[in-house]
Amino acid sequence: MRTWVAWVVTALFLVIAGCSPAPKNVACSNDGECQKDDARFHYCLESRCVECVGSASCGEGRTCTDGACTCSSDVGCPGQRCDQGVCKAR
């Protein structure tokens, strides 16, 4: 029984880990390569496509965290609420 549970947990972890946006893991040498693959990713930073390089590019109520814009307050989630960096329904 324990072995089965361990396999299920491992498989679930691998599925979740593989769900990051594709362009974020694409190697790049300039911003144009990222924008061509996905309009959300504007910058090539350290040879990977990212959505932001600083919080100013994310807009009000949003913060740049590891190359992705996340909410920092409800202002960053129009019509929703910010819960630990993720916009969620009220």
Protein model, in words:
The chain is elongated. About 22% of the residues have low confidence. A hairpin with a 2-residue loop joins strand 3 and strand 4. It is built from two helices and six strands; from the N terminus they run ααββββββ. The chain is α+β, with helices and mostly antiparallel strands and 90 residues long. The strands form three sheets. The chain has a two-stranded antiparallel ribbon with strand order 1-2. Strands 3-4 form a two-stranded antiparallel ribbon. The chain has a two-stranded antiparallel sheet with strand order 5-6.
Low-confidence stretches: 4-23
Please provide the count of β strands: 6
How would you classify the helix and strand content by structural class?
alpha+beta
Helix content: 25-40%
Number of helices: 2
SSE order: HHEEEEEE
**Major sheet size, sense and barrel closure:** 2 strands, antiparallel
Give the radius of gyration. Answer: 17 Å
Q: Provide the β-strand percentage band.
A: 15-25%
Principal-axes geometry comes out as: elongated
> How far from one another are the termini?
40 Å
Mean pLDDT over all positions: 79
Strand arrangement in the largest pleated sheet: 1-2
